[in-house]
Specification:
Elements lengths: L1 H11 L2 H15 L1 H4 L10 E5 L5 H7 L4 E6 L2 H10 L4 E4 L1 E2 L4 E6 L2 H6 L3 E2 L4 E6 L9 E6 L5 H6 L2 H7 L2 E5 L8 H9 L2 E7 L2 E4 L5 H8 L6 H7 L8 E6 L2
Parallel strand pairs: 1-2, 1-8, 2-3, 4-7, 8-9
Antiparallel strand pairs: 5-6, 5-7, 9-12, 10-11, 10-12
């Protein structure tokens, strides 16, 4: 019922209107967004990788001097460019190589934010974040459905030079999470998760166990989780440089 409601919502509402709805309610589903001022420094460049409907881009534009949004879905990238003319929108998949990849998306996956690089989809360009000539990067958000590790590798020079706050989606069902954690720790970062209204050190929180126990919450779909945000499936991890 809830899944069908989400599909109906995605199919009926015009995409710009759907985008406005998503951006207005998204802090209910991702409370980290509502607490952005706690970890996103003012000014500089903010990088939103996996822009989707732009809930992060919208709020980052009010805090950063420059916002760069990377979105692999060509249709969503075009919508973001029209919606946020002040942002630099790049229609590409972030990776550690250049070239192309296949990208699959449906109306429902676009609403859920689960469209991803996948065989059989449209061909999209790949980009290394280090090749974007960015300066003074103070915040980097990555939500690209299990492709966070290659995107980080393609941003190694930028991250190690500017030491931005890094917020990324980390899910054991999409990828082994330890290589991502170990890479960022090797760069001098330590992770934490927002759970129960407070930040908990990642190494003191059983992220894989939590996700295994709560993965059923995702079956409620976007609409269902919006109506009842708790209990929550935690998949966002904030990494900050130790120094």
């Amino acid at each position: 019922m809830i899944a069908s409601s989400s599909a109906a919502l995605a199919g009926v509402l015009p995409r710009p209107l759907l985008g406005r709805l998503v951006r207005s309610v998204y802090p209910r589903l991702e409370p980290e967004l509502g607490r952005l001022a706690e970890f996103v420094p003012a000014g500089g460049t903010a990088l939103d990788v996996g822009g989707w409907f732009g809930p992060w881009t919208q709020r980052l534009l009010a805090r950063a001097d420059r916002v760069v949004t990377v979105e692999a879905d060509p249709e969503m990238a075009a919508l973001l460019a029209r919606t946020f003319p002040r942002a630099r929108v790049i229609a590409a998949a972030a990776s550690d190589t250049t070239g192309t990849a296949s990208f699959a998306a449906t109306a429902v996956s676009r609403l859920a934010g689960t469209s991803t690089v996948s065989a059989g989809g449209a061909t999209v360009p790949c980009v290394r974040l280090d090749d974007l000539d960015l300066t003074d990067v103070r915040f980097l958000k990555l939500d690209i459905e299990g492709h966070e590790l290659p995107a980080l590798r393609g941003a190694a020079q930028t991250v190690r030079r500017d030491e931005p706050a890094v917020l990324l989606e980390l899910e054991a069902r999409h990828q082994p999470i330890e290589p991502v954690i170990s890479l960022l720790e090797s760069w001098g970062y330590r992770g934490s998760v927002l759970h129960g209204g407070r930040w908990i050190p990642l190494r003191a929180f059983d992220l894989e166990g939590h996700q295994r126990d709560h993965v059923g919450e995702l079956d409620r779909g976007f609409a269902g989780r919006l109506l009842r945000p708790e209990p929550r499936y935690v998949n966002s991890v904030l990494f900050l440089p130790e120094n």
